[in-house]
């Protein structure tokens, strides 16, 4: 049956066996059978309302419930009878019983009979019996898990009746709400994500716990179809989401600290998603929700102890946890739902000093002697707000050291006197509280009990109306610090009720008198006891007369509290009987008039509280009755005072403390208003309408040490002289919240050499620095100043030397201004500064030069909400943050304005960027790149011919490849087709054709004939000149270079020469040079390629056409020898490189 639902129509079942009915019920059943016809059947209508279901124990297969039952049935034996004829104990007890109940606590049982006429004439009368009762108990029921997640649990109440025959039992069940199935389906789906988590992935406590939970659900699903009955994980029923998230909260509060970024790195994405989901949902979990472990038992978190204190309050506990550390000294189990406590609940807690069990539902059966057998050292026990209305004898036998016992606010009260044996072991009890327990009188113990050791007794809110003579006999000889009788309805007080008390320091009668006339009885009752304090707050007192307190004539009262009454005036010396009175509290009355004799005879009065009344004007007669008194402190705030006349305080020569704040004073103070208060040290004029000060305003109060002028509408000080010039002893001055913008007197604070604290926040003092050519140095002369609050003033800059004279300043508050820069000399002189607040300004940069005066003394610095530019200019400050021990509030939230959104702690300036220091790799680049370039140029220079040759050759090969490749020329060897390729200028063509070629192609007999490659004959039409040149050089063993002035001037000849020279220098000696005409060396130097060859190798010089025949023959022989000479390897590759470099 579900919580808060009704079930109707239950009827008896004849199938129940005899042995299922308890023995007491059987005896009554047999008794009723004799008085009723055998065939008569009775139909009983049952209404069952389940108020609460909790403490579901799946292991024991039982649950606890709070149930309201009502029964109605027609009872034939009551017909034609009256109510007086029916005896309750004969017919109703017991009529029904609950078969599956393990333990029941029955309460609020009500029986009734209604008679209804059945005939037309109203007769006979049919009797219907009504029975209603409330049960709170434990019930046993089979808990099954079938077809998860579509299963449901049935928590049954099996109600049986003591009748012989039964009809049928109709059962009704409340089906699950659709949301319950949705929750269980979601949990089932989540459970299978467990299997996707790697075995080594959950490496922290939270993920391991989640994995175990979800695995358990999957296990339940697997075995539900195999086992007929298994323990049910009730935390997955109805409130699954809340309880899962509560586990997250438990580990956050009681487990090891969890850092979410660390979790994300330790877990894979499955675990991270699960943990994040639980953490998000955890914020919505109820703080009182129960926490369950996998085996269904409660995990209270009560194993966590801090400084000997274990806090188990506000956890919805149903029983005392079993995991409480033995070393606990303070145990708080308050604000739970504990109903029963086993006697061994606190076994082993021998160090316990304070035990709080208040605000539970503990019954009297749980408070037994053995419960405290190990608590002999207990000093404080709180049992208030429970249901303990009776105590067993010697219940506190083991609590001999108990000092505080609170039994207040018991739900059922303690109407009967407490037995003497209950308090007899409490020899150390000094504080006893019995508030709101329905006491019939203040004598709450049996006769003969003496609680002489008591110091405080609270009996408030008991609605007692009479104080008898012996009501406090148990306090015989006691010294009571406080007796609290407040919130009662006292109408009669016996004059001897306090006679046995040796000393009564304080008597609290707040809201305790039914009528103001009872005040006289109070005075009579305290005449025989030494009393110091009397509180008569909120007793409805409207007026004071000369006889109001006449019965207090012999009292020793020193403090009288009459606050929160409705007194309208004081006159005719109503307090004349309190000769020793030192403190009078008249706070929050309606006093508008104080007569000339109001406080006569109060020579010992030290403190007078007239705050929160209706006084409008203070004149010279208002306090004249206090002339010669010892009045030291007077409170006049929260009145309606609008003016103070001259001489209003002239009789208060001993006054040192005066509060006039929160009034309506609108006045120009010249000085005589404060005459007579030469000893005044504290004056509060704050929060008034408008006050203006003359230069002599405080001439009469030269001993002032603290002056408060905040929120008084003083927007400027135009006086030529400082109004504080007489206050040389002033230590604290408050001028805040005045919107002050003008200070004409430049030396306004100069006389205040002893001033230590200055409050000028919430003003407009930026005008005195910005709107004048020479900024006003209004802080000069404050050599003793230790704290200055200059916040909320709109300062955009600080003039140089402003704080130069403030050598002792320790706290400087400059928050909520418009400061953008702080020049180095602004803070000069602040060598003792400990705390500096600069938050909510417009600062971009903080330099070392600005902070240098106090870097060694600073302990706290506030800089949040400033638009810092996180660049190189902030380099020193950012590094200083890392190195300093100074406390910087909200540093983790402080952001940069540029780059926007970047945290100040995430900014770290690089020394390579800010200090002009090059990074190491810059040196590598600067040095290495030029060296690399030089080396590459060097290699390219050395190999320039090889590179050119191969580039040209490669280009020619690509073109030849496109035409189908090379074709062999018949008649020559495979490597060369020609013996010699002649490279010459076209202008020298006649000499080549007419002289050179005939000698080589058609020699005389006996000389070798050579195949000549002439570009005029062998160059292929359609190919580029470059390709023809390369091909001609490659196909010839030798290249014959006809060197002349014309040759040197021809670009193509020079190109042919370069290609041939590369082959000559690179691989083989294939170049033969003929110097045709007289080419000077100066001209050859301009052509370094051929000049280099002619320097290293021998060349032939044509002797000329006019030379002798012998010379010409010698020339031709040398030429034929050079052309015919076989090619030899010139040098290795390294040698070629060297030759090319020369």
From TrEMBL:
Region feature Disordered, mapped onto this chain: 1-24
InterPro entries referenced in this protein's UniProt entry, alphabetically: Cys-rich_flank_reg_C (IPR000483), Leu-rich_rpt (IPR001611), Leu-rich_rpt_typical-subtyp (IPR003591), LRR_dom_sf (IPR032675), Neur_chan_lig-bd_sf (IPR036734), Neuro-gated_channel_TM_sf (IPR036719), Neuro_actylchol_rec (IPR038050), TIR_dom (IPR000157)
Similarity comment: family membership: Belongs to the Toll-like receptor family.
Subcellular location field: Membrane
TIR domain span: 976-1123
Protein keywords: Glycoprotein, Immunity, Innate immunity, Leucine-rich repeat, Membrane, Receptor, Repeat, Signal, Transmembrane, Transmembrane helix
GO molecular function, one term: signaling receptor activity
Record's protein name: Toll-like receptor 3
Organism taxonomic ancestry: Eukaryota, Metazoa, Echinodermata, Eleutherozoa, Echinozoa
Single GO biological process annotation from the record: signal transduction
GO CC entries: plasma membrane
Membrane spanning residue stretches: 921-943
Topology in the lipid bilayer: Multi-pass membrane protein; Single-pass type I membrane protein
Chain intervals with Basic and acidic residues compositional bias: 1-20
